[in-house]
Amino acid sequence: MLSALRNAWRLPDVRNKLLITGLILIIYQFAAHVPVVGVDRNALRELLSPSNAGAGLINVLNLLSGGAVANFSVIANGVYPYITASIIFQLLIPIIPRLQEIQKEPGGQEKIQRWTYYAAIPMAFLQSYGQIQIFNTLLLQSNASATEIIPQFGSNVLVTISVLATMTAGTMFAVWLGELITEQGIGNGISIIIFAGIVARAPSSFFNLIGTSLHPIWDIVLFLVIVLISIIVTIYIQEGVRRIPVQYGKRVRGRKQYGGTATHVPMRVNPVGMIPLIFSQAIITFPTVIVAFFPDGPVKTSITTSFGSQQGLVYWGLFFALTVGFTFFYSEVMIQNQNLADNLQRQGGFIPGIRPGKRTEDYILRVTRRITLVGAVFLGVIAITPGLVDLLNSFLFPGEAVATSNNAANVLTGSAIIIVVGVVIDFLRQLEAQLVMRNYEGFMR
Predict the structure, then answer these.
(1) Which CATH number covers residue 390?
(2) Which among 124, 178, 334, 434 could disulfide-bond with 171, CB atoms 3.0 to 4.6 Å apart, if both were Cys?
(3) Residue range of the domain that includes 435
(4) In the predicted model, what is the mean pLDDT of residues 50-57?
(5) Which of 42-46, 322-326, 404-408 has the lowest mean pLDDT?
(6) Has this prediction a pTM greater than 0.70?
């Protein structure tokens, strides 16, 4: 990795891409410290207290936003409204034939991408309003006399509109920074924005764990074990490949013979990387956003308590199911978009023992589902690691209240670890591609 970075730094154009990426990430961190107008600092401090009922949810949101929630910044929503809009279109495209046709048209992908940006704006309004209402509910659950996170929000039209407009603009600004990285820098910009937020916030989360833990030595050891095992297994699963043999038929043209070679199609155990975790993380916060619009009652209290404090079988079971489901869904969408069966048939290739066409397509889908099962279960277990740690702590230290803020797995959640590992691997691959391309050009000269 260090040698790749050293070689990249010697090339002026690659060095410029790296500098642009770093500069944009610095700008994002500056924006994470610009608070929304009218925030009550005392209420925010009480909300972030480890004794708060929703400390687990807030810590996760804060980690994934790079500390923006701790400052209630203009980018406190991060890029998740855009991710939610992307999920909606990913779900609609296989269902609506017209969207499938548009996607296949020249420039259709760009058109759907533009619609995703448009859809992210109302999603950002919705998430901003819901997030503020959730925080107010969590404050009142911990302290009935607590003030609102933003006084007069909801009652004063001017304050409400200005706050929602500011947070929506902050979200779109974060998305724009991500797109700038994709176009001018190196790597997937949205993923790198999330990665930078996780890395920037991880040290303070670790020191908070040590400062508030009742068993600091145990939590430190558990944190190191979880991180090491997660990184090793993540790399192993990410790089795991099932090779499907492919044979190309012989073709004779004049006196020359072409084809007749044997190769393989690599099918990854986890072809979608960290995308299902990002999707499920965005969706799992949605119930608390939705119930914030309804009047107080037992159902609202139950959902806010379960999903706000990240506790209970319903929360972790749904999180696991969403992660596994999105892994299967996105894997099949990727395989279908690649049209491997049609491409092989056009190039004269075939899988030994499998007829070309529909049979080959069914075979590839069947193999994909089998190997994806391993990747999906792995991602699901990674996602619910904090819940498993809570269960372990309840057995080792019976009688003590389960506190998500003192959970070693919440310093770097399973989803955060796989996002970090996935982004680093993807970044190094793209950096390697840049180096190989330039070395090839230099050779040709």
Answers:
(1) 1.10.3370.10
(2) 124
(3) 2-444
(4) 60
(5) 404-408
(6) yes
